[in-house]
UniProtKB/TrEMBL annotation:
Record-annotated Nitrogenase/oxidoreductase component domain positions: 48-470
Organism in which the protein naturally occurs: Geoanaerobacter pelophilus
Catalytic function, reaction form: N2 + 8 reduced [2Fe-2S]-[ferredoxin] + 16 ATP + 16 H2O = H2 + 8 oxidized [2Fe-2S]-[ferredoxin] + 2 NH4(+) + 16 ADP + 16 phosphate + 6 H(+)
Protein name per UniProt: Nitrogenase molybdenum-iron protein beta chain
Gene3D superfamilies named among the record's database cross-references: Nitrogenase molybdenum iron protein domain, Nitrogenase Molybdenum-iron Protein, subunit B, domain 4
MF-aspect GO terms: ATP binding; iron-sulfur cluster binding; metal ion binding; nitrogenase activity
Protein's UniProt keywords contain Transmembrane: no
Presence of the UniProt keyword S-adenosyl-L-methionine in the record: no
InterPro entries: ChlB/BchB/BchZ, Nase/OxRdtase_comp1, Nase_comp1_CS, Nase_Mo-Fe_CF_bsu
Primary role: This molybdenum-iron protein is part of the nitrogenase complex that catalyzes the key enzymatic reactions in nitrogen fixation.
Keywords: ATP-binding, Iron, Iron-sulfur, Metal-binding, Nitrogen fixation, Nucleotide-binding, Oxidoreductase
Any matching Pfam family: Oxidored_nitro
Length: 487
């Protein structure tokens, strides 16, 4: 008897059964069962808190992200950032294992800090936690106080830290917690009555598009308004390839971040991913404060531009007015390719609000809108946008749902395209529709993070990508007699 014949499979699934199930998961009956699912999440379109914390921990000059917790978790955040940007994401971990879980992670933290400071010579160490120390209740305040008393942390070195338990919230909440701690640490004792830097502080919120950061800086420069981006990843994750490795290639200067407390004004464009930071800052920072939506689409970019003008007291420059005109022209030239097209979209609240606004402006229909970690407030805000346009009629919002729910939605109630991150490609393949990758992470396309989607330039980029794809599909699928030079 051959070895193969001796193997008795525990279960055998006939081809006919596989085909039956493959067809059944596309039905209305399956969708109803899928939406009754309570105990299991399948492919949630969010990542865990520490990943968001790591993104912003990279965004300051000489800052070394330090994971207090498991090495495996640290590898996950690093590899996700590394695959998205195709750049190194240098961070360290104190590699807690079984003994740390039993006796607490203080020894790991102290040894890790000693090694990391000696080897990587950071200007600041930004500490955040994985699940393990959060579950056992490690006391970071006490651990860091002991580290200072033992001389492990050099005199004057800022060491902000954030508790980022992953069983609660998502990457946007970790981002918020880490940014808050960094600003609290750097600005401590730096407020000077009567001093004004004359600068506007910008809080971009969780945003993994380096092109967006360059666009923010360009727009401020067009205005002639000095600005400090609080958490600037543009040079950190878009490093020139010059043959030299830089451990800390960019980020907001620590002195600028410290002096941001004396700014002329502070503007947040991440109302849902920097909520706590902005709430603290309103009570502690000088000048005016405003939180507005991310500038995606024409209306939200108008709001952003007007707000800079209002906060700085400077008129909107002609060059920006011309940019707006060009974006509107690009939309007008191409609206017929998007008009009436149905979209499924998912992502973080700040981005989702922008996508919905932009699609409605183009006469497209944001039909299935899904957010895995939204709230009633986000839902209400999206619904208000839908109610403001005839193209919002019949569109539905799904809060607290995942990408397996989304698959059921697009298989039973089809759309023309999806907007999201790389994880949506499986459902899109099954449904035979294109995926527009504007979210995070994007692992399977190159250079997407270098193309801004914010501002008027972002409008042109999004319109161009979406409409040209629809035109490509037409060219690839139309009958010969409709294959035209002009589209
Ligand atoms: S969810 Fe928890 S265990 Fe999983 S990678 Fe994130 S921090 Fe680690």
């Amino acid at each position: 008897m051959s070895a193969e014949a001796a193997v008795k499979y525990v279960t055998e699934t006939p081809e006919s059964e596989k085909e039956r199930v493959a067809a059944w998961i596309n039905t209305e009956e399956y969708k109803e069962l899928n939406f009754k699912r309570e105990a299991l999440v399948i492919a949630p379109p969010h990542t865990c808190q520490p990943l968001g914390a790591e993104l912003v921990a990279h965004a300051f000059e000489g800052s070394l992200p330090f994971v207090h917790g498991s090495q495996g978790c640290a590898s996950y955040y690093r590899s996700t950032l590394n695959r998205h940007f195709r750049e190194p994401a240098p961070a360290v971990s104190d590699s807690m294992t079984e003994d740390g879980a039993v006796f607490g992670g203080q020894n790991n933290l102290h040894e890790g800090l000693e090694n990391a400071i000696a080897i990587y010579k950071p200007k600041m160490v930004s500490i955040f936690t994985s699940c393990m120390p959060e579950i056992i209740g490690d006391d970071l305040v006490a651990f860091l106080k002991n580290a200072r008393n033992k001389g492990i942390i050099p005199e004057g070195m800022p060491v902000p830290f954030a508790n980022t338990p992953s069983f609660n919230g998502s990457h946007i909440h970790g981002y918020d917690a880490m940014l808050l701690s960094i600003l609290q640490t750097l600005t401590e004792g730096k407020k000077v009555e009567g001093r004004c830097t004359g600068k506007i502080n910008l809080i971009p919120g969780f945003d993994a598009n380096t092109g967006n950061f360059r666009e923010y800086k360009r727009l401020f420069a067009e205005f002639g308004v000095p600005a400090t981006i609080l958490g600037d990843i543009s040079d950190v994750f878009d490093v020139p390839c010059d043959g030299t490795y830089h451990t800390y290639p960019g980020g907001t200067k620590l002195d600028d971040a410290a002096d941001s407390i004396n700014g002329k004004a502070t503007l947040s464009v991440g109302p849902y991913s920097a909520t706590k930071t902005f709430a603290w800052l309103k009570d502690n920072y000088s000048g005016k404060h405003a939180a507005i939506p991310m500038p995606l689409g024409i209306a939200k970019t108008d709001e952003f531009i007007k707000k800079i003008s209002e906060l700085s007291g400077k008129p909107v420059p002609e060059s920006i007015k011309n940019e707006r005109g060009r974006a509107v022209d690009a939309m007008t030239d191409s609206h017929q390719y998007m008009h009436g097209k149905k979209f499924a979209l998912y992502g973080d609240p700040d981005q989702l609000l922008g996508y919905v606004s932009f699609l409605l402006e183009m006469g497209a229909i944001p039909y299935h809108i899904l957010c895995s970690k939204g709230s009633k407030k986000v839902e209400k805000e999206i619904q208000a946008l839908l109610d403001s346009s005839m193209y919002g009629k019949g569109c539905k919002i799904y809060m607290g749902k995942d990408l397996w729910h989304m698959r059921s939605l697009i298989m039973t109630d089809p759309v023309d395209a999806m907007i999201g991150d790389t994880h949506g490609k499986f459902a899109c393949r099954d449904a035979g529709i294109p995926l527009f990758r504007f979210g995070f992470p994007i692992f399977d396309r190159v250079n997407k993070h270098r193309y801004p989607i914010i501002g008027y330039q972002g409008v042109i980029n999004m319109v161009t990508e979406i409409c040209n794809k629809f035109i490509d599909i037409k060219d690839e699928t139309c009958e010969d007699r409709f294959f035209e030079m002009m589209r």
